[in-house]
């Protein structure tokens, strides 16, 4: 999941949703000659840009000027199809022209970034043309010119949720239409802070590609269920055959998750305050927000299910039904994908998945018996909410603790469920010299793989690694089976 909300201004100006009647459906533009020329020029530019986005070799600058001119012309041709983004696309042309005129140094697209305000147009199916020199999280660290055609996912019941208890004016759920190579990767977010710019503004939006989240979930969970012989509940199984249903489920999950970073009894906000600390603190923060989405979904399901269906609006019925699906999504994505995705170097999302699996196993709602995985779904909600309670209790108590004492308490909480690395200095007990020293000393003693995979996960990883690798670049139109 993303960590964008906590980095943005609470005072963002949010306009009314705008329905654009004459805009061409963005999916039709994927084969438009202007888009194809724009994408071709962007890819060509990437071939002569260096890591910071500049064109370093003087001999490459004439070609860069040609490619930039093609991008400017293509944006102008496509702009009428995006009237809601008119000021952004005009500023984008100016930024490209200025970058070219100034000799292709480190790019600065602050002006056009400030004009791009997709959170003001959260209309289901509305398209955007997004072009920036930027890096793509979990994709590429190079600030190359990337181009993306996207459409908004905003079903009616999500609008009702956001207008009620789960206000999140900065959240923009998206679906891929087409993209340049920086997004033919594991990146599933579009964040303004990734754009090359001269100064950091107040960020007013953050976007997640729910179609990619949903598609890789469907592929990974299908494979994991087959490998572990897990019999899925009927509604959970339905998600594996329905991309749109899964996308909407992930929108609901992320809507609640992302607003949770700023809410609750928080001793700190690890993503707002840029500080170096043990990676397991980030594990707990991300898991806290996921479990908040889980517990809120349990609450919504129970409260709405207690009412006669005839008394519920169409949106309330959708919220009730998707709330159950969010619970499956949080559990399965965490225990099947997060736990074994990526390297073992300070993998905080992986650790969160390991913790959830072990907690469920040790509280007798998840069983691995006779090489088959079974889950007691009736008992799961209260057990998982209890883990959420434990993390919330840690946070509440730590408001009164020194920072490093909070770190030690968090580690002790984790080791009540997970087994640390036998070589861990933290597990043995930090020396008096470290305990009396600066926080950096504590962090330096944390091993890259402080909590290694269990034997269950080592075996599962061998069978699932290829499946997880195959999800790079996946979209909602890719066969997720």
Present the secondary structure layout.
Layout lengths: L32 H14 L14 H18 L7 H16 L8 H6 L11 E10 L3 E13 L3 H8 L7 E9 L9 E2 L15 E4 H19 L5 H6 L3 H18 L18 H27 L8 H24 L10 H15 L3 E4 L2 E4 L4 H19 L4 H13 L9 H4 L3 H4 L3 H6 L10 H15 L12
Parallel strand pairs: 3-5
Antiparallel strand pairs: 1-2, 2-3, 4-5, 6-7
Pfam family, one: DUF6421
InterPro entries: DUF6421
Protein name: DUF6421 family protein
Describe this structure in words.
- With 481 residues, the chain is an alpha+beta fold.
- The protein has two domains: 15-204, no CATH class; 223-469, no CATH class.
- The protein has helices spanning 33-46, 61-78, 86-101, 110-115, 156-163, 210-228, 234-239, 243-260, 279-305, 314-337, 348-362, 380-398, 403-415, 425-428, 432-435, 439-444, 455-469, and strands at 127-136, 140-152, 171-179, 189-190, 206-209, 366-369, 372-375.
- Strands 1-2-3-5-4 form a five-stranded mixed sheet. A two-stranded antiparallel ribbon has the order 6-7.
- A hairpin with a 3-residue loop joins strand 1 and strand 2.
- Helix 6 (210-228) packs across helix 17 and helix 9 (279-305) crosses helix 12 (380-398).
- The longest helix is centred in the middle third of the chain and has 27 residues, at 279-305.
Keywords:
481 residues, alpha+beta, 2 domains, five-stranded mixed β-sheet, two-stranded antiparallel ribbon, 17 helices, globular
What is the SS-derived class? Answer: alpha+beta
Q: Please estimate the helix content.
A: 40-55%
What's the number of extended β-strand segments?
7
Give the overall pLDDT as a whole number.
93
Which outline best applies? globular
Our Rg estimate from Cα atoms comes to 23 Å
DSSP strand content: 5-15%
The stretches of 5 or more residues where confidence is low (pLDDT under 50) are 1-22
Number of domains: 2
How far the N terminus sits from the C terminus, by CA atoms, comes to 22 Å
Order of helices and strands: HHHHEEHEEEHHHHHHEEHHHHHH
Question: What composes the largest sheet?
Answer: 5 strands, mixed
Helix run count: 17
